[in-house]
Write a structure and sequence with these properties.
- The complex is a heterodimer of chains A (249) and B (789).
- With 249 residues, chain A is of the alpha/beta class.
- Chain A is built from 9 helices and 10 strands.
- Chain A has an 8-stranded mixed beta sheet with strand order 2-3-5-6-7-8-9-10. In chain A, strands 1-4 form a two-stranded antiparallel ribbon.
- Chain A is globular, with a radius of gyration of 17 Å.
- With 789 residues, chain B is α/β, with parallel strands linked by helices.
- The longest helix of chain B has 37 residues.
- The chains are: A alpha/beta (249), B alpha/beta (789).
Chain lengths: 249, 789
């Protein structure tokens, strides 16, 4: 399998917000979702000037040079995207090799995949971040282009095979940062995950520059970060429901 | 919390301007007029004693630790026996100069010109040095920025760590006098050597008597003020101060308070004796701990009181301002006198050494926010998490403190230099980043060598692109180089030549130090000097190491060679002719080529292509430098230190192949060229750690700027701690962080008056940002802030 090639954005060393310790983020290119606020637009497609071909071997080499930093910090590798499961053979190859090396592994997924096809891979993660962008299926379709049905299903299934699932909500004013949606999300998480955990990721527009580079239209300016007071209210709502609020900041 | 008293002293301190006092120089000169014809050690010791007897006694409001070196709060002194011509030339401009100005009045200037300088004409170290330095070396080494050792002939050496553990706290200066007398009595046989030893002991007796008298005068003054003081609490304090000054430094201290006052008196003695650079405190948390522990256990002192005294010492250490020439100030910017204080690490028997005082020192630096002492920490692999957390917490405050060192690498550097394991384990820092030990005599910052100048001469037939002068060796027309190897060889040929001149200028300076400026007071703080009766200048310490050569511009030079290798000889996208023309034109009209040059791999990004060139250069540097022997037969040592030397050394070098423009700064220590480490701090660390740092026993320095966001949470600070441990596991010695946001720095440039206490890391040390020249400030802002994590 060593000649396996995949499409990736530039790997990011020294990442500290997507799991424990000092981590390397491997961004897989290509995504089944079309979130209107996407901060990594280069990850939507596999053919643009910010996407590179790497062999599994090359990715493993990049990771090897960072291993000593994981060792001291309890860090490791986080797979992100785009959507890593779209290139499931590559993901499996990397996860198996790194799992055997004893490296801490995490994934950040949109949740949009066929569970049975990747179940073996997900068993090997130390930590799974799964996005849940909206509980309302119609709104989910409007803002991400796909239904949330598969995602809600996969949250349940992941709980069967992994104890460390964190549901992430990209918090965006006028999209999903209302009390009703957050409360529903919290209830769903509580009902379906053994150790219910939610992380709130307030929206940011750091990706705007990349839209220019790619020549794509920037996300609507209507997307705003909710106020600090608002976020505090939502946090209380989540915690009142017995869900643990986690943060990797 | 900071006490009201300390805050008041701190405010007074911050709001006073550095001023020059000529009192010490006046007394020194008058004394020398009286001692004409006597031996130099006796004359210097007598002058020291006279200064101790005559200097104004100053107890500032609210002070707990007393002793001043002159009449001003922030005070610099003159040492005309070392040099005075530059003072004469520059002092009219002292208050106007850009870097490190001083206040000096016309009356003061008149006085020193009439009464002090004339006496020293033809007698100073500087004049002898300049008269004796071979012409070919002078052309390369005097105020050129190419080879620079002016701090060794315009100033005293300093670079010493008084031995509190085995000498001062054990004997007190009273005990030292007693021992010196016993030694004299034992020197029965009449030999030239014994006569010299006798003279040494006599000089030590004089300086010891001097410092005891100095303290006693403070005791008297304190009682005098106490008698007039209405405030009962202050009256009591002053009476206590008087008791302490009567006891120390004549006798060994019996309490923490006495011990800390002893430390300051020792500093004062060192300052009066020679105004030294890098008069280190050493391992404060180790030698002070027994007194702290006993006082706490016996209820003599509370932890808060000990903290207040520690902070009082920090302020005293900051009061003294190093008086240096405009040239030296460019190399050592920020009024820094490099009084290094080391905490943490391991004990002599290899156990973890951290204790309450280690933490209290970190807190004192966080609260006092002055540039002294130079706080250094030793971090070993099994260092308590709590200590590492306290260290990264201080880093997050953006003061640039502490300087963080690998315990293991420091140990290894000393082992490589020939120390016994127990002594190597007991190392402290000297100046900025030199592993040192209290039984050592060494010039730890002897010469700065401009690596990039060597490359310029290789590529310009020995001529400087800036001045057009021929400074380097003959070389073939650079346009005719046929291979990368030829270019590299030409570089190393010029490089060897610069090292040769560095060695020559050090040897001339070393000989003159022996003849002209023996150091009885500081020698009396070193165990072996006292036992053997040999002054520091005559290699009297247990360990005598060769002078340290400091390399500047490692990154720029490696980057430049990499560019020539790749663009000219591998990719063949440009020929030597065009390239040399581009450098001559300072890149003007060659923007496309410059862009190509900028894209070639740069040191600091964990790219072997260029890092390999840096490794080769650093290894070569060690071998070449280390083979020379100094005046005492000891091998020279190498270092990649920082200080602020990468600015002046850049001003004298034209455009370089890496894309750098003429006169722009070079690179410091083992740090990447500013702005070229575009990957992550981890990659910069990996590049730096590839160099075999532990062979450079003079120390190595890596300076990184981190975005504040990384360290403003506990979790971020933990990650930083882990990052540091990783760096050290890779074999590196030192790292230091600036974590102030760019916006803050820009605001401080705009409104300096509001940011008087903003400390930043310059290189190997921290200083007040607003005290730096504009170009130095800009250079700090330009350092890559690592934001992408």
């Amino acid at each position: 399998m060593n000649n396996l090639y995949g499409s990736f954005m530039a790997p990011q060393n020294f990442s500290v917000n997507d799991g424990d310790g000092i981590r390397t983020i491997i961004f897989f290119a290509g995504c089944p979702l079309r979130c209107k606020w996407c901060a990594n637009p280069e990850g939507l497609y596999i053919d643009n000037n910010l996407v590179y071909k790497y062999s599994a071997e090359q990715i493993l080499k990049i990771i090897e040079r960072q291993e000593i930093f994981y060792r001291y910090s309890g860090g490791g590798v986080t797979f992100s995207g785009g959507e890593a499961t779209l290139q499931k053979d590559m993901l499996r190859e990397l996860v198996n090799k790194l799992y055997d090396r004893g490296i801490n592994l995490a994934i950040e997924t949109s949740g949009y995949f066929k569970f049975e096809e990747v179940k073996d891979i997900f068993k090997k993660f130390d930590l799974i971040f799964i996005d849940l962008k909206h509980m309302d299926d119609i709104k989910h379709k409007i803002f991400t282009g796909v239904s949330n049905e598969k995602i809600l299903y996969n949250i349940k299934r992941l709980n069967e095979i992994n104890d460390n699932v964190v549901v992430r909500i990209p918090l965006i004013e006028s999209v999903n940062a209302d009390k009703e949606n957050i409360l529903k999300t919290a209830k769903y998480v509580k009902a379906n995950i053994k150790n219910p955990k939610i992380e709130l990721l307030p929206y940011h527009n750091f990706g705007d520059e990349k839209y220019d580079l790619l020549g794509i239209e920037k996300p609507s300016r209507d997307f705003k970060i909710p106020s600090a007071e608002k976020i505090q209210e939502l946090i209380e709502l989540i915690q009142a429901d017995g869900v643990k609020l986690v943060s990797y900041k | 919390m900071i006490t009201e008293r300390i805050e008041m002293i701190r405010r007074n301190y911050i709001n006073s301007k550095p001023a020059i006092s000529y009192e010490r120089a006046r007394i020194w000169t008058e004394s020398h007029k009286r001692t004409e014809g006597k031996s130099i050690p006796i004359r210097r010791a007598t002058a020291f004693k006279d200064a101790c007897e005559q200097l104004d006694v100053q107890i500032f409001d609210g002070e707990l630790i007393v002793g001043a070196i002159g009449e001003f709060r922030k005070c610099g002194i003159l040492t005309p026996e070392f040099s005075w011509t530059w003072v004469d030339r520059e002092m009219d401009n002292f208050d106007k100069r850009v870097q490190d100005p001083y206040v000096m009045t016309d009356e003061q200037r008149d006085y020193v010109r009439k009464n002090i300088f004339p006496y020293w004409k033809g007698k100073s170290l500087e004049e002898s040095f300049l008269a004796q330095l071979p012409k070919e070396t002078a052309k390369v080494a005097v105020d050129t920025g190419i080879v620079d050792n002016d701090s060794k002939w315009r100033q005293a050496v300093g670079e010493i760590t008084p031995d509190y553990q085995d000498v001062l706290f054990k004997k007190g200066f009273g005990g030292i006098i007693k021992e010196a007398k016993e030694h004299i009595a034992e020197l029965k046989s009449i030999t030239a050597e014994n006569m010299k030893k006798k003279e040494f002991y006599e000089s030590v007796i004089l300086t010891s008597e001097g410092i005891i008298t100095y303290a006693n005068r403070y005791a008297e003054k304190a009682l005098e003020i106490a008698a007039e003081t209405k405030d009962e609490k202050r009256k009591e304090e002053l009476i206590k101060i008087a008791e302490i000054c009567k006891r120390v430094p004549e006798n060994p201290p019996t309490t923490f308070y006495e011990a800390i006052q002893f430390v300051w008196f020792t500093q004062v003695g060192g300052i009066i004796s020679e105004n030294p650079l890098a008069l280190n405190i050493g391992r404060f948390d180790q030698f002070m701990y027994p007194y702290y522990r006993a006082d706490i256990d016996n209820g003599i002192i509370s932890k808060d009181e000990a903290q207040e005294l520690t902070e009082a010492l920090w302020l005293k250490l900051s009061e003294w301002v190093w008086t240096i020439s405009a040239n030296t100030a460019e190399f050592f910017a920020g009024y820094n006198q490099f009084q290094n204080l080391t905490i943490g690490g391991k004990t002599r028997d290899g156990k973890d050494a951290t204790n309450d005082l280690s933490y209290m020192a970190l807190i004192a630096t966080e609260k006092i926010k002055t540039h002294q002492p130079g706080l250094s920490v030793r971090i070993h692999q099994d260092c308590p998490r709590e200590f590492l957390d306290a260290v990264t917490h201080l880093v997050s405050k953006g003061t640039g403190f502490p300087a963080i060192h690998s315990d293991q690498a420091g140990y290894q550097m000393l082992i490589n230099a020939g120390y016994e394991p127990e002594d190597a384990r007991d190392w402290n820092n000297c100046g900025c980043v030199v592993p040192h030990f209290r039984k050592t005599g060494e010039w730890t910052s002897a010469v700065n060598i401009n690596f990039t100048a060597a490359l310029e001469y290789a590529l310009n037939n020995g001529y400087s692109r800036i001045t057009g002068e021929k400074i380097g060796l003959d070389e073939i027309d650079p346009k005719t180089f046929k291979s990368y190897e030829e270019v590299e060889n030409a570089f190393y040929k010029q490089f060897d030549n610069l090292i040769e001149h560095s060695v020559i200028s050090s040897l001339v300076a070393q000989r003159l130090h022996k003849e002209l400026v023996p150091r009885p007071f500081l020698s009396s703080c070193i165990e072996n000097c006292l036992e053997e009766g040999v002054d520091l200048v005559d290699a009297g310490a247990k360990y005598n190491l060769g002078p340290v050569l400091t390399g500047i511009g490692l990154a720029v030079t490696s980057n430049s060679l990499a560019v020539i290798k790749k663009l000219v000889f591998e990719d063949n996208v440009v020929d030597m002719c065009t390239f040399i023309d581009a450098l001559k034109a300072n890149w003007e009209g060659y923007d496309e080529l410059r862009q190509m040059a900028l894209k070639v791999p740069k040191y600091g990004n964990d790219l072997d292509y260029v890092d390999d060139i840096a490794i080769k250069m650093a290894n070569y540097y060690y071998k070449e430098g280390h083979q020379y022997k100094d005046i005492n037969g000891n091998n020279f040592n190498t270092a990649f230190m920082g200080i602020s030397n990468y600015l002046p050394t850049g001003k004298v070098v034209g455009a370089t192949p890496c894309g750098r423009r003429a006169k722009e700064p070079l690179s410091e220590g083992v740090s990447p060229f500013a702005g070229s480490d575009t990957s992550t701090p981890l990659a910069a660390m990996r590049s730096a750690a590839k160099l075999n740092q532990d062979i450079h026993s003079g120390g190595t320095l890596l300076n990184l700027r981190l975005n504040q966001d990384l360290v403003n949470t506990k979790r971020g600070q933990s990650n930083l701690g882990n990052m540091i441990q990783t760096f050290f596991a890779l074999g590196a010695f030192h790292v230091q962080f600036n974590t102030i946001s760019t916006e803050t720095l820009i605001k401080a440039q705009e409104h300096p008056e509001e940011y008087k206490d903003l400390l930043v890391r310059v290189a190997g040390y921290s200083t007040q940002f607003v005290n730096l020249s504009r170009s130095m400030q800009d250079a700090i802002i330009a350092r890559t802030a690592h934001e992408n994590y």
